[in-house]
Design brief:
Strand content: 5-15%
Order of helices and strands: HEHHHHHHHEHEHHHEHHEEHEHEHEHHH
Oligomer: single chain
CATH superfamily of the largest domain: Metal-dependent hydrolases
Number of strands: 9
Number of domains: 2
CATH topology of the largest domain: TIM Barrel
Largest sheet: 4 strands, parallel
Shape: globular
Distance between the termini: 48 Å
Structural class: alpha/beta
Number of helices: 20
């Protein structure tokens, strides 16, 4: 059976079709937050088969396979690629209503020209056709990026990384896509992690500093920020659950670090004091360099202890956590703002109950230094589905300024995930088109088309400073 994804997929009005086909469709992609491996991009890796390219590292797919009683051996284990793919093909007809059903079929169409529904009866033909491309020059990592009309992308990198692959990519005149690093000091802030003391040793080695105090940590991170800036970094990334940034107690922060290095248990108050102090310091570092600061909030990690012990983190054991307190977020932003050290900031929430709260808080800290300086980020992770994207954009339109939105990102480890940008763009155009159809927006396609193009690419190009 042919797929249901035609030229006008998700475009339910004439206005939506005009906005998508004449404006959104032609815009390049700036994937400003992803988890692609820069070494794989530089080396232009090829994939063993469709299972390797499609299922490897994709915990979205792993979760739905587990929900359909697929054995772990056929998900993350040592089963042959073809067996893993066959099990995924068996699961696919069960996924109607889940965004993976849309994403998977978009990826088959856009990358492989396959417009059949994936199920056990079509698995053989799909496997053979997709593998033929993946094993050709057109199926290499760079080729897939170029085919997707990607202008630039930002990877996610630890402060101790030497960024050698970013340097090599920057010097490679044969690849036109900019690949920029992102500064993610997660391990330096996760003071309750048992690996924190060992990580500080690595951070100190990277910065050539013996770390014993919080001031040493700050000095090491500042050196690494400068190093990242020299390699083209323009933004940072942080992930929290429900942090309490209202706590400001330098002595408690010092005590937190002493306890962590000694292997002692920390009080929640001490953890909050440490994270507040470090985020205040880092925010100032980012502001001084014109970087954007990304804050991902509302996740609760590694709920399934058995799964975590067997496979580690980022394997599908995370979930939506509690909302962040408005006072907590405001405390962090305000401490920076009163010193004129608040960087451009992108706020993401995994808990959709925080949508309006974050947009309202962002509006309190906008200023003339940048249009849309404090962003409400794209619908993230468990929210990047049809309803979640619409809810995020409607909230932003109602309480903030949708036209300044910096748009979609993949947040993905897969080179086949770029059709998610198309998915977002179709939903965006359908939403704005519905406003035209309902008489809530003018049928001025120069006005609306420019807005759509801005959201798809130009806003983030300016926000990140792509051409600087």
């Amino acid at each position: 059976m042919k797929t249901f994804i035609g030229d006008d997929f998700l475009l339910n009005s004439e206005a939506a079709r005009i906005l998508y086909h004449e404006h959104a469709e032609k815009m390049p992609i700036f994937d400003y937050h992803c988890h692609l491996n820069p070494q794989e991009i530089y080396e232009d890796v090829r994939f063993d088969d469709l299972a390797h390219a499609w299922l490897g590292g994709d915990h979205y797919k792993w979760r739905v396979m587990r929900a359909n009683a697929v054995p772990e051996r056929c998900i993350t284990g040592d089963a042959p690629g073809r067996e893993k793919f066959d099990r995924y093909a068996e699961v696919m007809p069960r996924l109607i209503g889940n965004p993976i059903y849309h994403w998977s079929h978009l990826e088959l169409i856009r990358f492989f020209g396959i417009d059949d529904l994936l199920d056990p009866t079509t698995a053989d033909a799909i496997w053979d056709k997709a593998n033929a491309k993946l094993q050709s020059p057109a199926g290499s990592s760079r080729s897939l990026i170029m085919e997707s009309n990607v202008r630039a992308l930002c990877t996610t990198d630890d402060p101790i990384d030497d960024l050698q692959w970013h340097k090599k990519l920057a010097a490679d005149t044969g690849f036109a896509v900019k690949v920029l690093p992102t500064f993610r000091p997660e391990k330096a802030l996760n003071i309750v992690d048992p690996g924190y003391p060992v990580y500080l040793q690595k951070l100190g080695a990277a910065a050539n500093i013996l770390i014993r105090t919080i001031d040493d940590v700050k000095q090491a991170l500042a050196q690494r920020v400068e190093y990242f800036a020299q390699v083209g970094c323009r933004l940072s990334d942080h992930s929290f659950g429900s942090p309490d940034f209202t706590v400001w107690d330098e002595s408690a922060a010092e005590e937190a670090m002493r306890k962590a290095l000694a292997g002692e248990s920390l009080l929640d108050y001490e953890v909050a004091a440490y994270q507040s102090l470090m985020m205040d310091f880092l925010g100032e570092q980012y502001a001084d360099r014109g970087w954007a600061m990304q804050l991902h909030m509302g996740a609760i990690r590694n709920l399934n202890t058995k799964l975590y012990r067997a496979l580690g983190a980022d394997v599908g054991g995370d979930a939506i956590g509690d909302p962040i307190a408005a006072a907590s977020l405001a405390a962090l932003l305000d401490r920076l703002a009163v010193r004129d050290k608040l960087p451009k900031t992108v706020l993401y929430t995994l808990n959709a109950a925080d949508n309006d709260k974050l947009i309202a808080a962002a509006g309190c800290f906008q200023d003339a230094t940048a249009a849309g300086k404090i962003q409400f980020g794209s619908a993230w992770w468990f929210n990047d589905h049809y309803d979640g994207m619409i809810a995020q954009m409607k909230s932003l339109a109602n309480i903030g300024v949708l036209s300044r939105f910096i748009g979609m990102l993949t947040d993905s480890r897969s080179f086949l995930s770029y059709p998610r940008h198309e998915y977002f763009r179709r939903i965006l155009c359908n939403l704005v088109g519905s406003w035209v159809a309902d008489g809530m927006a003018p049928a001025d396609y120069n006005l609306l088309g420019g807005m759509i193009e801005d959201i798809c690419f130009r806003n983030v190009e300016t926000f990140i400073g792509l051409n600087q």
